[in-house]
Structure formats: structure tokens, C-alpha cells
């Protein structure tokens, strides 16, 4: 009889241990504070702007700055979020892109070079859309394929540019400033200098933008001086 009781007690204790572990795992992985609340403000975030492409209104009160790798799947996902944000806030939010091709991505540097060539032709936003859409096929070594979807098939300068393997100055600048700022992965996102610990969700970044536009600090510790982005 004692043996049966011991077995029952052991089973109950095992079930309780599993239940407690489940609660702790749920709390750890599903009840963490939002990404922005686990992040910080960087007073020197403006140094990154000299290495960026500005898309949007120079006087926009909210500035999103992103270190991006065009072969990074998380960057592709965030790019989709940005398109929605830019449609929703056409004059209130600006976007600054900084090339930060990671060494582990074999085609990211070439993709950044191709995007720079597209920028010379006035087609950077379109190139970003195409490259992210074709991200799973970037192993194509001949980047002249990009000319057709950009309407640059007859542009010999574009064909010559994508054939050049020299790293463009702005890509070098992005890598240098990212290294100084301790960028370790992509996308690394800033909103008016608030550096996110991870990729912010659509809901979180829209909430932060709304708070800033309404004159509220989106996070504890967000400085009043950064409530409006400086004009560029």
C-alpha cells in the first residue's frame, strides 16, 4: 500500500514540476516586455546619417534609421513593414537606409553594390523592392538581371556599374559607422535615436510613432530632446 502511495506522490510531483516549468517558459518567452522597452537611447545616433540614404521628407518629425543587409530575411520582413509605415505616414516619417552587409551572407555585398548602381540611376526604392522580392535568387552572379525590372535595360552605365566589384563609398561608410556603433546584426532599427534591442513589431513601431506625433515619450527614459527628429 505504501508503494502505491509513493508512486502516486511521485507522479503528482512530476506533473507539478512539468506545470511549473511550462509557466516559467511561458513567462520567459511570451511575457517579455516589448522590444522597445528593452532598448535604449543613443545620443550619437546622428553620426549614422552621413552614411545613409534618406527616403522621405527631410523635415519629418519622426526618423527611422535602419542598418540593413539585403540578403537578410529579417530585413526583408522589416522592409514590408516599412512600406506600410511610409504609406500610412507619407510626410510624418522619414526613413534612412544604411548598408550593412554581413560577412555570413555571400551575396549581400554584391546586392548593396547593385542597389548603389540603381541609386545612381534614380531607382533606389524600386531596386530595394525588387532585390528583397528576389532575395532567394541572389546567387545569380550577373547583376545585369536587375536592369530589366527597373526599366534600365538600355542603360549602359548601369550595366557597367553592376559589373564593377569595387565597394561603393557609401557601403564602406555604412560598415565603418556600424562597427563604431557596435552593430552586430540586421536589421538594427532606430526611431529618433531609440535603438531597438531586436526587430520591432509592426504594432510596436506604429505605437511609438503615434506617441511621438502626439507629443508623448514612447518609452521610459526617452529624452524630451528627441521627441522630434532634427531636420536634415
Fourth-level CATH superfamily of the largest domain: Glutaredoxin
* Structure summary, number of beta strands: 6
Average pLDDT figure: 87
What share of the residues does DSSP label as strand, in percent?
A: 5-15%
Helix content range: 40-55%
Count of distinct structural domains: 2
Strand order of the largest sheet: 1-6-5-3-4-2
- What is the helix/strand order? HEEEHEHHHHHEEH
Quickly count the helices: 8
Q: Can you offer a commentary on this structure?
A:
It is a single chain. This protein is an alpha+beta fold. The chain has 2 domains: 1-31; 36-226, 3-Layer(aba) Sandwich (Glutaredoxin), CATH 3.40.30.10. The chain has 8 helices and 6 strands; from the N terminus they run αβββαβαααααββα. Helix 3 runs antiparallel to helix 4 (124-133).
Summarize the structure.
This protein is an alpha+beta fold. It has eight helices and six strands, in the order αβββαβαααααββα.
Q: What is the strand and helix layout of this fold?
A:
Layout: H1 2-30, E1 40-41, E2 53-55, E3 62-68, H2 73-88, E4 93-99, H3 108-120, H4 124-133, H5 147-150, H6 156-163, H7 169-180, E5 188-191, E6 194-195, H8 202-213
Parallel strand pairs: 3-4
Antiparallel strand pairs: 1-6, 2-4, 3-5, 5-6
Helix pairs in contact: 3-4
